[in-house]
Q: What sequence folds into this?
């Protein structure tokens, strides 16, 4: 193993390998440390990136770089919604129900792990599996030191987890309980006995830095994103503050009048127009993101509805490759550091829905009567509501996601059918007619915008457009009318 005098020394060493493929790094390891044998499994990226400094794969609980007490963690990145960001949460260590009750935060096992963590960043492209690991690209390092990163909030999250274990209600732990530190289910979710008489049972869990926090941390440190704080008092949550402000300022107002009031150069086709309007309503600088929303993983989405508050459309999420759906897991095993479903991390966040009341009008096009939204100046801003999936809803989403996965694993069936005078692709992917919350629909610019990784995965046999998960219209309606 290489010797390092400081964290800066370690980071400088890794900097020499930035933008190298993992195949290049493997060649370096083979030449420099021929005694290290790497196994091409789901953890191969971590094996390669740690072996650069001479670390052979091991299960030693001690710090990976002991002389300077640094824990090494791999963090896969992926392009999602046209932006590079962390692909998933970062698991830290398993949660021991039988020792946490006697721990104090300052000397707890999880805090020791989090004291200094050096994230080894690599890009894992959409539609690639661990079998394509040689193509992954090392993108550098990202240092996390807990004493500089909202330790008080992390401690609050930990104390909340501990309290449930002490009260022997650990079965009620939810990853959504915490702001930054989560306790996610792991492995098979087997029941662990704990408590005074070992009569209580709770699912196996691991501590993790939540995906929403990892996105925030990465954007702040690597992409140098600027944030503005709402400077909230302790008694109010970010979602309640934003909801109150939006409803006080916007609810029932004509959109044209509102954008004039806040001096927004509005375009209905530009998502940035609504973001700009929201920032100005919240008195946040135009070029900054809202700190409390980003830290807590709260996303604002507009929902077009008719005058009866019925959604005109389903709600889309970022596109994905069907290859990803095949290889991902809803819950990853205890010893796996990646491979968790991207959609799980997205749908576990909180959402503020701003309803936009629009009416449609008929018009003549190519001799046929079509419908379109009336001019945006006629739109009215309705009520804003907050939704975060409950445990029961997440369980339903998990079941529906697994159904979608099973369909793809069993083989996607694609055929071309006529829709009027135009051809349209038909498939057997998960439909809203058979689900309660989510379904799969195309998310592509046109019929030529195909899921190329899946096309190659099937031996150049199945041409299908990019897909995404969507929230069902009926489900959205139930939330905005609740």
A:
């Amino acid at each position: 193993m290489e010797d390092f005098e400081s964290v800066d020394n370690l980071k400088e060493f890794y900097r020499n390998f930035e933008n190298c493929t993992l195949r290049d790094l493997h060649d370096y390891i083979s030449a420099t440390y021929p005694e290290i044998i790497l196994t091409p499994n789901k953890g191969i990226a971590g094996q390669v990136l740690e072996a650069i400094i001479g670390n052979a794969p091991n299960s030693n609980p001690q710090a990976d770089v002991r002389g300077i007490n640094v824990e090494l963690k791999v963090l896969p990145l992926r392009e999602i919604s046209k932006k590079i960001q962390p692909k998933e949460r970062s698991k830290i260590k398993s949660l021991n129900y039988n020792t946490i009750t006697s721990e104090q935060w300052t000397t707890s096992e999880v805090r020791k792990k989090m004291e200094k963590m050096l994230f080894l960043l690599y890009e894992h492209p959409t539609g690639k599996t661990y079998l394509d690991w040689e193509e992954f690209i090392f993108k550098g390092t990202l240092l996390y030191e807990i004493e500089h990163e909202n330790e008080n909030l992390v401690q609050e999250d930990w104390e909340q987890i501990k309290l449930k274990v002490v009260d022997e209600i650990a079965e009620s732990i939810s990853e959504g309980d915490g702001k930054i530190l989560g306790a996610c289910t792991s492995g098979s979710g087997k029941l662990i006995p704990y408590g005074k008489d070992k009569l209580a049972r709770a699912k196996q869990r691991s501590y993790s830095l939540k995906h929403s926090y990892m996105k925030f941390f990465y954007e702040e440190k690597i992409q140098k994103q600027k944030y503005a704080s709402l400077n909230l008092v302790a008694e109010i949550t970010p979602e309640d503050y934003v909801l109150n402000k939006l409803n006080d300022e916007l609810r029932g107002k004509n959109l044209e009048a509102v954008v004039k009031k806040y001096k927004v150069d509005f375009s209905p086709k530009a998502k940035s127009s609504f973001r700009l309007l929201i920032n100005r309503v919240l008195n946040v600088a135009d070029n900054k993101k809202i700190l409390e929303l980003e830290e807590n993983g709260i996303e604002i989405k507009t929902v077009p509805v008719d005058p009866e508050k019925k959604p005109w459309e389903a709600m889309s999420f970022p596109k994905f490759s069907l290859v990803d759906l095949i290889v991902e897991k809803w819950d990853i095993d205890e010893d796996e550091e990646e491979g968790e479903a991207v959609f799980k991390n997205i749908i576990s966040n909180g959402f503020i829905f701003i309803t936009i009341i629009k009416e449609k009008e008929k018009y003549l096009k190519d001799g046929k009567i079509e419908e379109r939204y009336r001019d945006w100046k006629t739109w009215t801003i309705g009520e804003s509501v907050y939704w975060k999936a409950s445990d029961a809803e997440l369980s339903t989403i998990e079941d529906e996601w697994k159904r979608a996965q099973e369909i793809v694993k069993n083989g996607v069936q694609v055929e071309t059918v006529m829709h009027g005078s135009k051809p349209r692709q038909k498939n057997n992917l998960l439909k809203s007619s058979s689900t309660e919350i989510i379904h799969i629909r195309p998310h592509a610019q046109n019929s030529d915008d195909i899921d190329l990784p899946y096309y190659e995965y099937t031996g150049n046999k199945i041409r299908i457009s990019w897909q995404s998960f969507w929230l069902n219209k009926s489900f959205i309606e139930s939330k905005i009318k609740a």
Notes: The radius of gyration is 24 Å. The mean pLDDT is 92.
